[in-house]
């Protein structure tokens, strides 16, 4: 199916970074378990206690900065080189796809390494924010916030449109390591199916989309993706 696809779109979630040691959000040991997401990942939470929210994001950024991309991230880089057109859409904010070598990643939920001014909306690269002093914009003096999309916030407009267009166009949508409960990201699956595309889910467990997709590959992304790649085109014969 992959060999015939021509164009492939991929939607990843926290599960693809699990084998890099980054905790997922839901399920066993999930980040959101200890805390309700709405108590930390919303504009209201930030307005109410920017210090607490900055501590949460600084902690996650440091965790991610120490992690390495895994075989799953790397297999997607190789897969991109095997098809005519490849679009990588991620809900992750860890930038591990980019560190593995993926270019043009559509980050639906922003990322931990950019920050944005709440006043003039300039974005800055993350320079270690040294709490307890809260970061302020050097241009206009307003409070600076993490560059992620919080619950209740719209996704970056251009990015959502590009993701939707890719999913409508590509012959196959690979959905990897997402619990498919956050919208509109999870809605990309219904969009692909509505366009008559083939949807394949790679996940450790069943999710709300498992009954809707064409094929479920149950297991770890870091094992399944390299295996898919091998079957797509056997590794080049060792030079004799
Ligand atoms: C919007 C960034 C409206 C921040 C995130 C009620 C109240 C409030 C909001 C809502 C509500 N009901 C619905 C909503 C809308 C809401 C939403 O969908 N809520 C859900 C929870 C019900 N959505 C929004 O608010 C979105 N905005 O709707 O705007 C609007 C519209 C128009 C105009 C104005 C406003 C914004 C959503 C973005 C929220 N931000 N994160 C941060 O990261 O701190 S979402 C958060 O969840 C993460 O970004 C993450 O990417 C995302 C999804 O989680 P997953 O990636 O799926 O991770 P999870 O842990 O859940 O699952 C991991 C999976 O991997 C599991 O299935 C596991 O089995 C699998 N796995 C584990 N290990 C492996 C593996 N698979 C393979 N291999 C392995 N090794
Ligand atoms: Zn500013």
Mean pLDDT, as a whole number? 93
Corresponding CATH superfamily of the largest domain: TPP-binding domain
Number of helices: 10
Poorly predicted tracts of residues? none
Q: Residue share in helices?
A: 25-40%
CATH topology annotation of the largest domain: Rossmann fold
Strand content: 15-25%
Helix vs. strand class: alpha/beta
How many domains is the backbone divided into? 2
What is the number of E strands?
Answer: 9
Query: If strands are numbered along the chain, what order do they take across the biggest sheet?
Result: 3-2-1-7-8-9
Name the helix and strand elements from N-terminus to C-terminus, one letter apiece: HEHHHHHEHEEEEHEHEEH
Distance between the termini: 31 Å
CATH architecture of the largest domain: 3-Layer(aba) Sandwich
């Amino acid at each position: 199916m992959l060999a015939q696809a021509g164009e492939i779109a991929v939607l990843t979630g926290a599960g693809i970074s699990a084998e890099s040691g980054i905790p997922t959000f839901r399920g066993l040991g999930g980040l959101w378990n200890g805390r309700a997401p709405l108590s930390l990942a919303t504009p209201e939470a930030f307005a109410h206690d920017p210090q607490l929210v900055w501590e949460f994001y600084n902690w996650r950024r440091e965790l991610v900065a120490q992690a390495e991309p895994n075989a799953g991230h790397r297999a997607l880089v190789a897969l991109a080189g095997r098809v005519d057109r490849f679009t990588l859409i991620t809900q992750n904010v860890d930038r591990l796809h980019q560190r593995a070598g993926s270019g043009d990643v559509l980050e639906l939920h922003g990322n931990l390494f950019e920050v944005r001014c709440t006043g003039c909306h300039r974005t800055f690269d993350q320079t270690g924010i040294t709490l307890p002093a809260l970061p302020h914009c050097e241009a206009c003096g307003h409070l600076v916030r993490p560059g992620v999309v919080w619950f209740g916030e719209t996704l970056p407009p251009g990015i959502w449109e590009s993701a939707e267009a890719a999913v409508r166009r590509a012959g196959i949508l690979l959905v990897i390591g997402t619990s498919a409960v956050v919208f509109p990201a999870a809605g990309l699956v219904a969009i692909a199916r509505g366009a008559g595309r083939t949807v394949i889910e790679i996940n450790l467990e069943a999710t709300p989309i498992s009954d809707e997709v064409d094929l479920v590959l149950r297991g770890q992304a870091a094992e399944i993706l390299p295996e898919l790649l091998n079957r797509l085109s056997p590794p080049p014969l060792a030079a004799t």
